[in-house]
Amino acid sequence: MGHALCVCSRGTVTIDNKRYLFIHRLGEGGFSYVDLVEGLQDGRFYALKRILCHDREDRKEALHEVEMHQLVEHPNVLPLCAHAMVEKGPKHEAWLLLPFFKRGTLWQQVEALREKGTFMAEERILYIMHGICRGLQAIHSKGYAHRDLKPTNVLLDEDDQPVLMDLGSMNQALIKVTSSREALAVQDWAAQRCTISYRAPELFTVETECVIDQRTDVWSLGCVLYCMMFGEGPYDMIFQKGDSVALAVQNRLAVPHNVRYSPALERLLSSLMAVYPQERPYVADVLSQLEALQPTPTGLDTTRI
């Protein structure tokens, strides 16, 4: 898990014999928090993710996240710069040093547009979707699925290229379920690790005999596309109101009538949001559709916020 890490004086830490200065807190979740740090040797900014590990199972999960970063090397998947496990009394913390993206997440971009009373241009949507799909394809090619794709887990670089992050929920793409016990285990895992308003229908009520595959990510991709088009996820409001998302996702999504986007983009959205996974395209097929809509997705002069 990397070389020993120590917390030093004046708000610095040392990872792999390199010192980093704490700048400020970027965010925090239930069992982790992220700080902006500056490398004292190279002068670059990084995001330092610190995962609280209360027991051996927590440490195993943190190591899994490290392994997933190391498994997939692709421009559209967040790389890991360094890592270490540090003891905090009887507990441990996993420290993941990651690149810092000052433009933030796709969700922050969507929110900024919504506050201005405007929506994302179709050309930009296609560009971002293309990059997300390339990242997913890289993950799927390794036999894994992301399982928690959502706008807050997509970073945007200076060229508007999306970068997938938060790889802790990644697991085997193909999950064969052969008993009610296995079905319940998968269902419970999904309830803990897959964000409810972006979770595929087949993960809410897992059948006793079935195969879950990487097209759970395609459903989530559809929710991300919807969010870019309409300023919020298709099931965000249902969740916020306390209504049943599990029930809502069993019905085919009704795409709001609009004149902003082409019928082809609406058809793509509908294909991604097919309730039955067998009816959804694989990511390679989605890429083909995107390239037909926009033959040259690279080098786009995007409109910045």
From TrEMBL:
The terms under GO molecular function for this entry are: ATP binding; non-membrane spanning protein tyrosine kinase activity; protein serine/threonine kinase activity
Residue ranges of domain Protein kinase in the record? 20-293
Keyword Nucleotide-binding, does the record have it? yes
User: SUPFAM superfamilies of this UniProt entry?
Assistant: Protein kinase-like (PK-like) (SSF56112)
CDD domains noted in UniProt: STKc_16
The catalytic activity of this protein is classed by the Enzyme Commission as: 2.7.10.2, 2.7.11.1
Q: Which reaction does it catalyse?
A: L-seryl-[protein] + ATP = O-phospho-L-seryl-[protein] + ADP + H(+); L-threonyl-[protein] + ATP = O-phospho-L-threonyl-[protein] + ADP + H(+)
Query: What compartments host this protein?
Result: Cytoplasm, Perinuclear region; Membrane
Class in the EC hierarchy, top level: transferase
Work out whether the entry's keyword set contains Ribonucleoprotein: no
Q: Name one Pfam family in it.
A: Pkinase
The annotated topology with respect to the bilayer is: Lipid-anchor
Keywords recorded for this protein, A-Z: ATP-binding, Cytoplasm, Kinase, Lipoprotein, Membrane, Myristate, Nucleotide-binding, Palmitate, Phosphoprotein, Serine/threonine-protein kinase, Transferase
Task: List the InterPro entries hit by this protein, alphabetically.
Answer: Kinase-like_dom_sf, Prot_kinase_dom, Ser/Thr-specific_kinases, Ser/Thr_kinase_AS
Coiled-coil region list: none
One GO cellular component from the entry?
cytosol
Main location class: cytoplasm
Q: What does this protein do?
A: Membrane-associated protein kinase that phosphorylates on serine and threonine residues. In vitro substrates include DRG1, ENO1 and EIF4EBP1. Also autophosphorylates. May be involved in secretory vesicle trafficking or intracellular signaling. May have a role in regulating stromal-epithelial interactions that occur during ductal morphogenesis in the mammary gland. May be involved in TGF-beta signaling. Able to autophosphorylate on Tyr residue; it is however unclear whether it has tyrosine-protein kinase toward other proteins.
Its assembly, as annotated, is: Monomer. Interacts with DRG1 (via its N-terminal); the interaction phosphorylates DRG1.
Q: What is this protein called?
A: Serine/threonine-protein kinase 16
User: Which organism does this sequence originate in?
Assistant: Sphenodon punctatus (Tuatara)
The coding gene here is STK16
